[in-house]
Write a structure and sequence with these properties.
alpha/beta; 3-stranded antiparallel sheet; 18 strands; 22% strand; binds adenosine-5'-diphosphate
Length: 426
């Protein structure tokens, strides 16, 4: 049991987002464990923070609430002193939720009448000013998120967006207050509460703003945010940044990359890996539809002799035109599920049959499928490779229950040389 050490209990609404939050807590000095879903048993290792990774972002609100409350109950049973509800730094949600409904349900369960909401993550160019969210140099509503297939974000005013999702009154702690520091933020919170505000969007355009916000959140039972706010919380518990929090067991075994992300960043990373002369094998979804398991066996036979000389890449990553052609033939959901299933089988085979013990996975959904196929229940979070992407360590039945180093890269994260750089960082 970790009752004596657990400080922050986190609930993340998606999988690579959970790793992103864990990464920021580790960088601020906390020992962090990420669980895949709500564990059935008590935590069996010492940690300052636990991140429960859910896949609740686009579920019907009632289901997202039920899962989040189950996570809360488990975290409370482990002794968590503060709860952190983590969502995307682009505030990904539909008109119906789930950020508002889940935040409200957690407030009710915790018996608290006030919390904050801010997706600011300046290290990845997500900033909030006057309640408006910017992605790089443009408003959220003018960014690529405008046309997201599941959660299109067409309004950058977060006070308005959140107010449409909750019965509680939404207010703003604007930058003029944040710039004055923690005492001014605390005063502003008191006056917002007196006005009956239940949730306040907080401006932050820099890490300095987030570090000023941190002390003002010290006694708050619930914080809701992207991953950025996490950099200012560990100090409230007397935890200071140190290199020891991110120490993982020594890396061993062979190295591979499995990529199912089709983002612009991942396309560039695949091209860079190929240009660097490393072996790479493309997966054609139409061939998977025809050959299935035989295609998996072929890839493993190709990889086995090459792995001895360094990392190999297996990828379905393609550009928009190629994806459209495949989706036209197979259907979008069917193509996605087919590719995920086979990439997960390949990841499992690389570990179980080929001796890979250092695995990079690119893509949020792809990561979920691979971690499931590897039977991973829990990840220990190590050092950052790029903002939002740390190395992790897990036990997996596919690796004879011995250790496996994993990194789960969400689509748009990472520099162009990520697939080669990652192994050098271990
Ligand atoms: P990201 O983090 O970039 O969004 P995901 O893994 O979450 O990446 O999503 C990518 C989706 O696209 C997955 O469902 C994956 O199976 C699917 N996919 C990958 N390659 C192809 C392809 N060549 N054609 C069609 N769908 C693909």
């Amino acid at each position: 049991m970790v009752k004596s050490t657990l400080k922050i209990g986190c609930i993340a609404d998606d999988f690579t987002g959970a790793t992103d939050l864990a990464n920021n807590l580790v960088r601020a000095g906390m020992r962090v464990v990420q669980t895949i879903g709500v564990p059935a048993a008590p935590l069996d290792t010492e940690a300052d923070a636990v991140v429960v990774a859910l896949k609740s972002r686009t579920l019907p609100a009632a289901e997202a609430i039920a899962q989040s409350l189950a996570a809360l109950a488990w975290l409370q049973a482990q002794g968590a002193q503060q709860i952190y509800f983590k969502y995307c730094s682009t505030f990904d949600s539909t008109a119906a939720g789930n950020i508002g409904p889940v935040a409200e349900a957690l407030m009710d369960a915790l018996g608290t009448d006030f919390t904050i909401a801010t997706p600011a993550f300046p290290d990845n160019q997500r900033t909030v000013f006057k309640g408006y969210l910017f992605v790089g140099d443009v408003l959220l509503s003018e960014s690529g998120m405008r046309d997201h297939p599941l959660t299109p974000m067409r309004d950058a005013n977060l006070v308005r967006v959140l107010q449409a999702q909750t019965r509680r009154k939404v207010g703003l702690i604007d930058h003029a207050v944040v710039a004055q520091g923690a005492a001014a933020i605390t005063d502003r919170i008191a006056s917002l509460r007196a006005e009956g505000v239940g949730l306040a969007v907080v401006d932050a355009v820099s890490n300095a703003d987030l570090l000023r916000l941190g002390p003002a959140l010290k006694a708050m039972p619930l914080v809701t945010a992207g991953s950025g706010v996490a950099i200012g919380l560990p100090a409230n518990f007397g935890v200071a940044a140190s290199d020891t929090a991110s120490v993982l067991p020594a890396a061993q075994g062979l190295q591979a990359v499995v990529s199912g992300s089709c983002s612009l960043a991942t396309n560039r990373q695949v091209q860079h890996f190929i240009a660097s002369g490393r072996p790479a094998r493309a997966i054609d979804p139409l061939q998977l539809a025809a050959y299935g398991d035989k295609a998996v066996a072929d890839v493993l036979a190709w990889a086995r002799p090459l792995l001895r000389d360094g990392p190999v890449l297996v990828y379905s990553t393609a550009d928009a035109g190629a994806i459209q052609a495949v989706q036209g033939r197979l259907g979008a959901a069917e193509a996605g599920a087919l590719v995920e299933h086979h990439l997960a089988a390949i990841a499992r085979g690389l570990v179980a049959e080929c001796g890979v013990r250092q695995l990079v996975v690119a893509g949020g959904e792809t990561s979920g499928a691979c971690v499931q196929a590897l039977g991973v229940a829990q990840l220990k979070i190590g050092a950052q490779i790029d903002p939002g992407v740390p190395w992790c360590w897990a036990q997996s039945p596919a690796a004879d229950n011995a250790g496996l180093h994993l990194t789960l890269k969400s689509g748009n994260f990472g520099t162009h040389d990520f697939f080669t750089k990652a192994f050098a960082r271990l």
